[in-house]
Design brief:
By secondary structure, the protein is mainly α. It has 2 domains: 122 residues, no CATH class; 151 residues, no CATH class. It contains 11 helices and 2 strands; from the N terminus they run ααααααααβαααβ. A two-stranded antiparallel ribbon has the order 1-2. The protein starts with 20 loop residues before the first helix and ends with a strand.
């Protein structure tokens, strides 16, 4: 598995000593990471990088491994959703603390790569663990939206939506960055199937559609909505109305996820390795 190429990170940097935070940042961050840290990629990434790299530096100082750092993120994610989905008796502030914990664990995602490079522990296993921890919260959101509605049929649909969301995101990353996180190789002796290695081209989607898949919307905004309105009938509206609203929101996501997934499948050109 190719973890980083020389265009984004020079592994020669690891020969430099790391004694303080400045060294940690200069040696551990990729070129893309340094741009995000400086705010070249927007305010949201600036905040996440600033917090994430500092969290990774603290982890390095106290001897936490990169995989343990990622495992802590996973525990924080589960704890955050526990607070967000806690019973009605729990005060709203605890639910909002859960939203903040979600933000914190996502910010840590911007520092775990630095930590793994500093510790020289980058590996396919660690990368897959990081991918799982990165995707799990978004997939959990889909299930939560389905489960808090009064329509049980939405729960199995959330599993289907999670699969389509994950696959389409990986296909888009493969086309955009040339760095697939899942492999498009079919090993079979069935003559109706061939070995293939890439999808091309992946269609481009408009900015508004892509906005709904970003973590500020899927993780933060939806978590805030669930925290505030699930058990709190604001504006004099009944809880049933809010339940239907969450069901509608889930169906909206199911539709746009399905649209993106099917659009990619429709545009796929399967490349036969034997022809190359």
């Amino acid at each position: 598995m190719r973890l980083r190429d020389e265009k984004n990170y020079s592994w020669d940097e690891l020969n430099n000593p790391v004694k303080n935070y400045s060294n940690f940042y200069n040696v551990g961050c990729t070129k893309t990471g340094k741009k995000g840290y400086k705010g070249d990629n927007g305010l949201i990434k600036l905040v996440h990088y600033q917090i994430g790299v500092r969290c990774a530096y603290i982890a390095w100082k106290i001897g936490i491994s990169a995989n343990l750092f990622t495992f802590i993120r996973l525990i924080l994610t589960i704890s955050a959703f526990y607070l967000i989905m806690s019973p009605e008796q729990i005060h709203l502030k605890w639910k909002l603390i859960g939203v903040f914990i979600l933000f914190l664990q996502k910010a840590m995602d911007y520092g775990d790569g630095c930590l793994s490079r500093i510790l020289r522990s980058s590996s396919p296993v660690g990368r897959e663990f990081d991918v799982m921890t990165d995707f799990a919260p978004k997939i959990m959101i889909l299930y939560l939206l389905a489960s808090i509605s009064e329509y049980s049929i939405l729960i199995p649909l959330s599993g289907l939506a999670a699969y389509m969301f994950y696959c389409s995101d990986q296909w888009i990353r493969h086309d955009s960055y040339g760095l697939p996180r899942i492999y498009m190789i079919e090993y079979t002796i069935n003559p109706n199937f061939i070995e293939y290695d890439e999808f091309y081209p992946v269609p481009k989607f408009n900015y508004i559609l892509n906005l709904f898949f970003t973590y500020p919307v899927m993780l933060y905004l939806i978590s805030i909505l669930i925290s505030m309105f699930r058990f709190n009938p604001f504006f004099g509206l009944s809880s049933e109305i809010y339940s239907n609203a969450f069901a509608t929101l889930f169906l909206f996501y199911f539709i746009i996820i399905s649209y993106r997934y099917l659009s990619i499948l429709k545009s796929i050109q399967i490349i036969n390795k034997k022809d190359n």
